[in-house]
Amino acid sequence: MTWTQEYVPLGNLALSALAASIPIIVIFYLLAIRRSPGQVAGISALVAAFLVAVLVYKMPFSTTLMAALMGIAYGIFPIFWIVITAIFIYNMTVETGRFEVIKNSIATITDDRRLQALLIAFSFGAFLEGAAGFGTPVAISAGMLVGLGFNPLYAAGLCLIANTAPVAFGGIGIPIIVAGQVTGIDTMKISQMVGRQLPFISVFIPIWLVVLMAGWKATMEVLPACLIAGVSFAVLQFFSSNYLGPELPDIISSLASILALTIFLKNWKPASIWRFPGEQGNKSVAASLPTYSTGELFTAWGPFIILTVMVILWGLKPVKALIEAPTLSLYVPGLHNVVTQVAPIVKAPVTMAAAYKINWLSAAGTALFIASIISAMILGVGPGQFFSILGKTFKQLTKPLITIPAVLGLAYIMNYSGMSSTLGLFLAGTGSFFPFFSAWLGWLGVFLTGSDTSANALFANLQSVTAQQVGVDPVLTVAANSSGGVTGKMISPQSIAVATAATGLVGKEGDLFSFTVMHSLALAVIVGVMTYLQAYVLSWMIP
Length: 543
Known about the structure:
Layout lengths: L2 E2 L8 H8 L1 H12 L4 H18 L5 H35 L2 H10 L5 H19 L4 H12 L4 H11 L7 H14 L3 H8 L3 H24 L1 H21 L5 H19 L26 H22 L1 H8 L3 E4 L7 E3 L8 E2 L3 E4 L5 H16 L3 H14 L1 H20 L1 H9 L6 H16 L2 H19 L3 H12 L7 H11 L5 H28 L7
Parallel strand pairs: 1-3
Antiparallel strand pairs: 2-5, 3-4
Helix pairs in contact: 1-19, 2-3, 3-4, 3-18, 4-9, 4-16, 4-17, 4-18, 5-14, 6-7, 6-8, 6-9, 6-11, 6-12, 6-13, 7-8, 7-23, 8-11, 8-23, 8-24, 9-21, 10-12, 10-22, 11-12, 12-13, 14-16, 18-21, 19-21, 20-21, 20-22, 20-24, 21-22, 22-24
């Protein structure tokens, strides 16, 4: 038995789009107005989507249930599998005290507040985004800056803005991987397209940061360092996203930026040491920190070096062909070849496949888990402590374990029911201007969910459908969902909450929101204009 999608179930496209947007309105209201926890908003929106699919779109109850369960399953594996293993490695470095070595090794490089912001907020924050993501970079890097003596509001705000550059490839490329799964578009193409948008922003984010904290004149004093940090990051971000895939751009780019900036600062100093107005004395914080031997530094950074090596290995074609062999593909009963898409979404009726792939060996999370075992040996973590830290990590991620599958379940219901297609058809009314608005759709998604991954789960298929309606390559608009999304991260309620908690600013969320909101809007405009130009003037940039 099959069921055919109906894209205008209420007889009017605007009313049907309003009905389809109910789950989005629910999640917006709960997150932006009620400030509800992510898991509460995710589950509520999932329930809303279920009801709209069954009651408005007349999707069979059992088919709707199986779509939700398939999305939930993908949220757990491979998505949450990546999250848990990445943060597990990070947690091991913290538990063993090696993270202090990493933190101090960066802090000893310079006393200048401008340069410390570049190293920690931009370069090291991007590294944490690539290795763990999920709020870790802002929490850790903002805490580090406060520890070094930064004004808490500036520490939090700078880290939120700096996090713009790496978010699309955060957590070992999870946002791009999800966009590929939701849309069916080749993940590598999405990675390449995002890698042809974000590097332009990555180049000037360091300059943007320093201007914000110190003004133009003080920025010109450290312009060479800003360019070193931004250009080294952008070049490697382009290369890795276009030739290696979505998993490693943040890791490789941030390490390149850290290394290039460190070497540069060993041989170059600004004309004067800049500090915030009102800072007492000129005590050298960096000078009071311990120094480390090469062996100590290697041990501390070892887990992240191993992580990088493992992900590179897992991406090599010969290795990939070998580890893909044991993959299991299970057709989802009650959903596989049950739903039929029709015009105008497709030229001819097409039944939608529903195969859940269990690539237990080739999954990026498996590479990270193997890296965690090797890292445990390097760090001297025994079996007891290993499983103790793993248990703590699971406990730490209890709420995300609910939120991520809930949002994926919501996305799958919206896709299989035709709700995303209805919204896409409605947005197609913007016609040739849609590429500009596609970036804003990503911005809205990340603002609502606090996650580029969740925003892609929600809107990536909508972006694809709408692009086809207006005659634009869907690879561009799906990529713009990620690229535009990163600009909404700094004002997301979840990001604001993490940043205030890390810097002792709880209760002053409104101040931090005001600090970042104009920067968020300005960057979203830039990404929107860039996407519009790539659609019609620079279309040769689309892979």
